Amino acid sequence: MLLAGLALPASFAARASSAVVRRVSVVRAAGSTKLLFDLSGPVVANSFALESPPRVVLDLHQAELDASLDGLALAGTPVHAIRSGKTPTGDLRIVLDLTRSGVRGELAVLQGNHKLELLLTGLANQAAASAGAAGAVRERPAGKSNRDLLVVIDAGHGGKDPGAVGAKGEREKIVALQIALLLARRIDAQKGYKARLVRTGDVFIPLRKRAEVAQRLNADLFISVHADAAPRLTASGASVFALSQGGASSSMARWMAARENGADSVGGGLDVKLRKHDPMVAGVLLDMSMNATISTSLDLGHQVLAQLGGVSRLHQSKVEQAGFAVLKSAAVPSILVETGFISNINDCRRLHDVRHQRKIAAAIFTGVERYFRQQPPAGSLIAAMARPESA
Ligand SMILES: [Zn+2]
Fold it and tell me: How confident is the model over 218-232, as pLDDT tens digits?
C-alpha cells in the first residue's frame, strides 16, 4: 500500500481548515470514470488505492462535506458505493468501494482552486490520465472588461518527485505547496486579482503541462515556487529566476535549471531536454515574442526580488536567467522563485515556519502588485482603477 501523506505543520493545518465540498458528481467517459468535487477553495488532496476489498480513498485535508453522496450515477462505473468520514486528524475521507481490483485514482485534473477531479482508470489508461492534467482547464471568457488579473501559481515538484530533500527528510514539494497555497489565498483576497494553482495536492505533473496551464488560461503571470538544495550546504537565501533563450547568467543559474529540468525524468522518460529547437518552443513561439516575454519577466522578477529582500536574505541580488523548462509559456511573463535552500539548516527551519511562509507569500504578492501598478494590462480592473490618476 502506498500512502503518500503530507506532513503539514499544525499551525498551517489550522489555517487551511476552510475548504468545503459543495457538490459531488460523476462523469462517465470512454474507458474512464471521473468524480468531480466542487470546492469552496483550495484544499490539499491526496488519493491512494487499497485492495481486499478494492477501493480508492480520497483524503481532503481539514475539509468538510456539504454535499450528498446518495443518488450518484454509478451504474456502469467501477464504483459500487461511496461513503465518507473523518480521519482522527480531522481530514475528510471519501472512500469509493470498487467492483474490481486494478483501478487507480488519479488526481490528474486541477481546475483552478474550486474543482478537483478524481479520474478512475485501469492500468492501461494511466497515460490518458496524465495527459488530461492540463487539458481540461478552461479558458477565461474573452472580452470581459474590468477583469481580474489572473496569476497562475505552480508549486514545484509533487507526487513521485519530492524535489530537494533536507537533512532530516524535509521535502521541497511540501514546502513549495504550503507557500503556493498561502500566496494563492493572498492573491484571491485582493480586489482585481485571482489565483489559480497548477496543483493543490501531492501529484506529479510534467513541467511542460505546468507551463501549458498558464498558456491555456491566458494568465497574466506565472510563478513557480521552489525551495531547492545547493551543492554548498552554506548557500542560503532567496533568489528569482527568469527564462534565458541562450546561455545561463551564472553557473549557479545553469545548475539550478539543470536540477529543476531534471524533475521530469522522475516521471518515467518524459525528460525535457533543453535544446535550441525544443519542439514546443519552435512550434509555438517566435523568438521575438519570447524575448519580449523574458524582458517583462525580468521586470516582474526585479520587483519580487526587491520585496523578498525585506523578509529574507537574498542569495543573488539580481534576477538570474537560465533555460528553465517550466518557464516556457509563450506570452505569459513567468518567474521561478527559490524561496530559500532546504539544504541549509537555517533556511530549512524558516521555510517550515508558517509565519515565515506567510511573509514570503506576502512579499511575492507585493512585488506582483507593484509590477502591475506600473503596467496594468488593458481591460483589467487594476487598469480601470489606475485611470483617474493618469487622466
Ligand atoms: Zn525545485
Answer: 899 999 999 998 888
DSSP 223-275: EEEE----SSTT--SBEEEEE-SSS-SSHHHHHHHHHHHGGGGGGTS------
User: What CATH architecture applies to the domain 149-385?
Assistant: 3-Layer(aba) Sandwich (3.40)
pLDDT tens-digit profile of 239-278?
999 988 777 888 878 888 888 887 665 543 323 333 333 3
H/E element, 209? helix 207-216
User: Any idea what DSSP says for residue 139?
Assistant: P
Could you give the CA distance from residue 185 to residue 53 in angstroms, rounded to a whole number?
39
Q: How far apart are CA 285 and CA 306, in angstroms?
A: 30
| Residue spans of beta strands (DSSP E) within 177-217 | 193-197
Where in the chain are the domains? 18-135, 149-385
**Residue ranges with CB less than 5 Å from ion ligand 1:** 156, 163, 226, 228
CA dist 386 and 282 (Å) reads 37
Cα-to-centroid distance, 246 and ligand 1 (Å): 21
List for the chain the helix, strand, coil content (%; round to 5): 35, 25, 40
CATH of domain 18-135: 2.60.40.3500
All three cell numbers of 201 = 495536492
Is residue 330 very low, low, confident or very high in pLDDT (cuts 50, 70, 90)?
low
Compute the distance between CA of residue 272 and CA of residue 264 in angstroms, rounded to an integer.
Answer: 7
Burial grade of 151 (CB within 10 A; 0-12, 13-18, 19 or more):
buried
13 pLDDT above the threshold of 60: no
Convert 350-362 into a string of H (helix), E (strand) and C (coil): HHCCHHHHHHHHH
Cite the beta strand spans of the chain per DSSP E. 20-29, 32-39, 45-50, 55-60, 64-65, 79-86, 92-98, 104-110, 115-121, 149-155, 193-197, 221-226, 239-243, 320-322, 334-338
228 Cα: distance to centroid of ligand 1 (angstroms): 5
Determine phi and psi for 62, rounding to 5 degrees.
55, 30
CA 171 to ligand 1 center in whole angstroms: 10
Distance between Cα 163 and ligand 1 center (Å): 5
- Centre of ligand 1 from the C-alpha of residue 257, in Å: 9
